[in-house]
Specification:
This protein is an alpha+beta fold. It has ten helices and eight strands. The strands form three sheets. The chain has a four-stranded antiparallel beta sheet. Strands 5-6 form a two-stranded antiparallel sheet. Strands 7-8 form a two-stranded antiparallel ribbon. Strand 2 and strand 3 form a beta hairpin. Helix 4 packs across helix 5, helix 5 runs antiparallel to helix 8 and helix 9 packs antiparallel against helix 10. It is elongated and about 70 Å long. The chain starts with a strand and ends with a helix.
């Protein structure tokens, strides 16, 4: 049997060859003809392959999206994400939060008791250092993704390159423990503004990749992203109140 699908995200002949090679890795695929100009892939298969399986085969290259003819890329991507469980989708993020939480607890015990202020400070430092690390691995890719939903990055692309540096500076500043009040003020302002962009995209029900972990993990923008931003807003506000 032979089926034709739409392919988006290809920009050059190298992309065309990459998509073809990824599809041919599926044992059920007998042949694959991929066209960059037409944005299509004609696949001959020994038995029917689910669209979600085809998308998974090319999902290593996050920019490529496969869809049935008549279905646009955003619908196809949404369908693929719906097939995954919530835990499977956000597993990388959950693990990272778990590690940061555990390490910040370990480093916040003094005289056999937990110093809550120190825990929050260390948690925020770990959050910003870890998330900036993933963004800086491919800062251009992050900037492209961030500009799809952040209100400032949409209008001024350089902000997408500046934001990971801000996160890195916040993390280092928190660990240094000097002039922390101003650090908390800046975090509160930056993360509050970032929250508005996430809320705006969620309100419009846009299907967008979350750029919180850069381009390393394919995570959908959702309530978890909103929770991350609001958590940093809340923690910085609490720490400011405690310092006043």
């Amino acid at each position: 049997m032979t089926h034709t699908y739409n392919i988006t995200g290809m920009t050059c002949s190298g992309c065309e060859a990459k998509v073809k090679s990824l599809l041919l890795k599926l044992p059920e695929v007998l042949s694959a003809d991929v066209s960059l100009n037409e944005g299509k892939a004609t696949i001959k298969m020994s038995k029917h392959i689910l669209l979600a399986s085809l998308q998974e085969a090319i999902s290593g290259e996050k920019k490529y999206v496969i869809s049935e003819e008549g279905i646009d890329a955003s619908q196809a991507k949404m369908y693929t994400e719906e097939k995954k469980s919530w835990i499977t989708t956000y597993k990388p993020l959950l693990l990272i939060f778990g590690y940061i939480t555990a390490i910040s607890f370990i480093t916040s015990f003094k005289n056999d008791s937990l110093n809550l202020n120190l825990w929050m400070n260390n948690f925020m430092a770990g959050f910003f250092l870890t998330f900036s690390f993933f963004k800086l691995l491919n800062i251009r890719g992050f900037a492209d993704g961030y500009s799809t939903y952040d209100l400032l990055a949409k209008r001024w692309k350089p902000y997408g390159f500046i934001y990971p540096i801000l996160e890195l500076l916040f993390g280092v500043w928190l660990l240094m423990g000097t002039n922390q009040m101003w650090c908390y003020v800046l975090i509160l302002l930056v993360m509050t503004f970032s929250t508005f962009g996430v809320i705006n995209s969620l309100r419009k029900k846009q299907t967008i990749e979350c750029a919180c972990l850069g381009t390393i993990f394919n995570l959908p923008l959702g309530k978890v992203t909103l929770f991350e931003d609001l958590l940093m807003v809340a923690m910085s506000a609490v720490m400011l109140i405690m310092l006043l």
